[in-house]
Amino acid sequence: MPSIKENLRVWNSEYHWKDQGEEWSQGVGAHNVGGSDLFWTSTLLPRINHFLPSKTILEIAPGMGRWTKYLKQHCDRLIIVDLSPKCIEACRQRFSMDKHLSYYVNDGKSLDMIEDSSIDFVFSFDSLVHADLTTLGAYLNQLTVKLRANGVGFIHHSNLNRYRIFNYLPRGILNGERLNRIISWRDPGVSAKLFEQLCIKAKLQCLSQELVVWAAPGLFTDVLSIFRKGSCETKSGNEVCKNRNFMKQCDLMSRLASAAKLGVTFDSTTFQP
């Protein structure tokens, strides 16, 4: 859970995409101010700013272009790959005026269409949390070939395997509506440590992993992993940190944006993460 087949069914057929994915950003921050613009500038860009601009960027699983619209401003060429023909076609229409974009539908794990040693930066956020370990391993094994020397990746993935209880729950329960609301369809077989091991096997070096509380209160359900081409020569090469206040920080930025929009001035003690 969830398989490539299930991901294709949900994102290509069942999900409504009524706001082109913006609905996911509106859920970040209780005040719902700023949407993806605020989330990009306050949360994502500070984490990847060191790697931008990049000559060629690969975005895996862009959906309907929620982050594509920002990435395209930071490169000479942007390649987007998704298993959903519906999403790729929507992006093709949405960014039809941007001639430096290339679009590909894949099988959920193949990058055969990408030229070897051509990618400077690979990005995937809020999509591969739904991918299992096999899928992530397939992507990483190919990225070691597709990335240029010193190429870097930023991938957002599940950390549910850290909590082994999810491995023993019956599949019917895992697919239950109530539990899915709690874990937001994260894959229970993936963790920060297992992702790092996949990187090592693929001759990629994990530079940092930020464990964040997101999908379930008090649980580090998600990981933001940054890696680069090249094997890790020391066991201390990966910087792992825990961020319990990730969602609170997002909410803080939303509240500040709301105050600014209304022209309201607050005492600094009002906003406590």
Task: Please write out the topology.
Blueprint: H1 4-14, H2 22-26, H3 35-48, E1 54-60, H4 68-71, E2 75-82, H5 85-94, E3 101-105, E4 119-124, H6 133-146, E5 147-158, H7 165-168, H8 171-174, H9 177-183, H10 192-201, E6 204-212, E7 222-229, E8 239-243, H11 246-262
Parallel strand pairs: 1-2, 1-4, 2-3, 4-5, 6-8
Antiparallel strand pairs: 5-7, 6-7
Helix pairs in contact: 3-11, 6-10
Which features would summarize this protein structure in a list?
single chain, alpha/beta, Rossmann fold, 11 helices, 8 strands, 37% helix, 22% strand, disordered C terminus
The CATH class turns out to be Alpha Beta
Please estimate the helix content: 25-40%
Question: What characterizes the major β-sheet?
Answer: 8 strands, mixed
Strand order of the largest sheet: 3-2-1-4-5-7-6-8
The third-level CATH topology is Rossmann fold
**Computed structural class:** alpha/beta
Domain count: the total is 1
What is the level-2 CATH architecture name?
Answer: 3-Layer(aba) Sandwich
What proportion of the residues form beta strands (DSSP E)?
A: 15-25%
Shape: globular
Low-pLDDT stretches: 29-33, 266-273
Mean pLDDT, nearest integer? 83
**Number of alpha- plus pi-helical segments:** 11
